[in-house]
Each structure stands twice: as C-alpha cells, then as structure tokens.
Amino acid sequence: MPKLCLDDRAVISVSGQDAEALLQGLITTDIGALAEGEASPGALLTPQGKIFFEFLISRDGDKFRLETTSDQAEALLKRLTMYKLRSAVELSLTSPAPVTVVFGDARPSGSYRDHRFEKADTPVFRLYAETAEADATVADLDGLRIAAGVAVAGRDYALQDAFPHDVLMDLNGGLSFRKGCYVGQEVISRMQHRGSARRRVVIVAGEMALPPTGTILSVSGRAIGALGTVRDKAGLAIVRIDKAGEAMAKGEAILAGDVPVMLTLPGWTGLVFPADAGEASA
Fold first, then answer.
1. What is the radius of gyration, based on Cα positions, of the chain?
2. Measured distance CA(19)–CA(266) in Å, rounded
3. DSSP-assigned letters across all residues of 212-259
4. Which pLDDT does position 278 carry in this prediction?
5. Which residues, other chains included, contact 109 with Cβ-Cβ below 8 Å and sequence gap of 6+?
6. In the structure, what pLDDT confidence band is assigned to residue 35 with cuts at 50, 70 and 90?
7. Is 132 a residue whose pLDDT tops 90?
C-alpha cells in the first residue's frame, strides 16, 4: 500500500474531564458521534460562521487529537486556551508531529480512517507515527483529493474566507446541525435552513495543463471562482455553482486563465449545477 510521511503537521492533545464538553461547545464536529478509529473533519469557526481553523479530530484513548497544519497550530492552541477558562482541560502541542497517510483497502493496525474520503469510497488512513516505508508523494495524495473533492486550507481556500458549506463540510461529516450551539453555529444553521450556499468545491478538468493555484475561473470575463490544488490537467476550485450552471446551460465557455475547462461536482455529494442563478441550494 502506498504510504506518505507528511512533514507539515502538528497535533494538539485535549484531555481532562471537561475535554469532550469543551470541544462539543466549540467546534463543528459532533464529538458524541465520533467513533474510535476515525479521523473526522472539523473546524473552529469565527462568530460570523467562517472557518477560522480546520483540522482532523480523533479519539486517542481518553484524550482527543486535533491534527492540523504546523502553520495553524500555535494560533489554534492559543484560541483553545482562551476558551477553556477554568475548565478541567489540559492542552498540549506537538509540532511537527509524525503523520503517515496510507492509501489502499487493507487497514493498517492502529490507523484512523480519514472520514473525508469515505463517501467517495476511497480508503485513506492516517497513522500518528513515522514509517520507514514511505513510497508515495504529496502529488499522489493531491490526486486522491482532487478525485474525491477534498479541499484543504491553504491549498484550496484561505482561512477566514470560506464557510463550511463552501468546502462541503455540511456533507462530509464535519458539520453538525443536531448538536447544541457552538461558535458560528447560528450563521451556518441559517445557511442550511435557507438553502443559501452558492459556493462549492468542484473538480476541474482542463483541455491542457492547468495554470497555477489562484488562477481565476471566469465566464465571459466574469470571475466565478479560483483554482486551488492543481495536478497537471486536473484540479480543485471553489466556484459559484449558480454562475457555473448558468454558463453551462447557455453553452458559454468556462476558462481557468486562458485554458478551457470542464467542471463537475463530486458525485458523492448529490449536488447538481442549477440551470439558472435562482436554483442553487445547500
């Protein structure tokens, strides 16, 4: 099975008798539904409902593990420390932290299934240990993410610039609408209720190699989104699906820079491009 050792990861350990209650009242993930051996997507939102920090959360015995990028870790730890107040919670940071990603059907012992890929029927596992058998590359992982429609902060969107719906967290298990209140919950619940999500992750296929990350996607000179992760002719982007659907219905070309592209929504989402700007929904 291909294995990749990541060198840009950090882990925050959250422990203590109030750890679950603290996280349940702060982050988007439903901690009560978090199964053993599962790494679930999650986020801490701004009060305005945008993604402040993103991470994968898993149970580590009687503790919780928040895996994030090294560049988010210190600020996330500081924010969690601010919120814990007098709670019986202990926080610790390991940065960099050993994280190995394994692709394939056979589950390695002691691994955690990456829940972001589960609905796309792509087995991806995470080991919180180093391995000497790494034989895959970041480009290999990018290829899996593109095919599954899995967006990540820094590569596909900027923190504090995207709502959870934009990056499909309402559909991949990272966003709860059933648990109690948490930071930003009122805003994203209103988006869900009103069906007002317009920006979504799409898979981009170019007629030739795609231009770099950050290149604008446009229709008749009007921006509808921007490229995120790129791997040769394939990539991810977050776009206005109402504008993209309208362009498709009219037969208008969609360009990434000057490269003609086709956009598809990840099949597992059940989402479709609306035929006009008034039909988009969450």
1. 19
2. 35
3. -TTPEEEETTEEEEEEEEEETTEEEEEEEHHHHHHHHHHT--EEETTE
4. 53
5. none
6. very high
7. no
**56-61 long-range contacts, CB within 8 A, separation 24+:** 56/114, 56/116, 56/126, 57/23, 57/27, 57/29, 57/31, 58/34, 58/112, 58/126, 59/34, 59/35, 60/13, 60/128
Q: Which amino acid is present at 166?
A: D
Q: For the residues 215-229, what does the mean pLDDT come to?
A: 98
Check residue 180 and give its pLDDT: 85
Residues in Cβ contact with 84 at an 8 Å cutoff, skipping those fewer than 6 apart: 18, 22, 91
Is 97 within 8 Å of 128 (Cβ atoms)? yes
pTM: 0.93
User: Closest Cα to residue 243, out of 278, 210, 270, 211?
Assistant: 278
Q: What is the DSSP letter of 121?
A: T
CA–CA distances in Å: residue 60 to residues 46, 113, 266: 26, 13, 31
One-letter amino acid identity for 4?
Answer: L
Closest CA to 127 of 99, 96, 93, 95: 99
245-252: Cβ within 8 A, 24+ apart: 245/272, 245/273, 245/274, 245/275, 245/276, 245/277, 245/279, 245/280, 246/274, 246/275, 246/276, 246/277, 247/219, 247/220, 248/273, 249/275, 249/276, 252/219, 252/220
Return d(Cα 271, Cα 268) in angstroms, integer: 8
